[in-house]
Every structure is written in C-alpha cells, then in structure tokens.
Amino acid sequence: xxxxxxxxxxxxxxxxxxxxxxxxxxxxxxxxxxxxxxxxxxxxxxxxxxxxxxxxxxxxxxxxxxxxxxxxxxxxxxxxx
Length: 81
Description:
Low-confidence stretches: none
Oligomer: single chain
Strand content: 25-35%
CATH architecture: 2-Layer Sandwich
CATH class: Alpha Beta
C-alpha cells in the first residue's frame, strides 16, 4: 500500500499532520511535507506505507479537505478518497 500526495493541491490546513506522523508542517511554504517520500516526474510525492501505519495514513487521506492525499492498494486500486 502506498500514499500519493499532490503537494501543489495542499492548502495548508494541516489536518493530515494531526493524523499521521509522516506528514510534517512546512510553515515556510504553508503546505505539509511527506517525510521520506520520493517526488515523481509529475510532482506527486509517493511513499510506501508501513503496515503499522496504514490506519493513520488512511485517516490522513480522509480528513484532507482538498483530496490531495490518495491511498493506493497493492493492486493499484485507489482506496481513498
């Protein structure tokens, strides 16, 4: 399972930061950062989710008001949003 994060879409509400420790506030940019993520060619940040963090990652995606966070299962199916 992986998370895909579109940082350009982020509006800096930081609800994801409250739900999953992988997200950190970047007050300089007014957006969240996804620690350890790799940036893809299209500007999306991707990170494999450790099994023990799956619940928190899913919750972070659910609370994002602009749907900048997507959870993708191992079969490539989008779970959230």
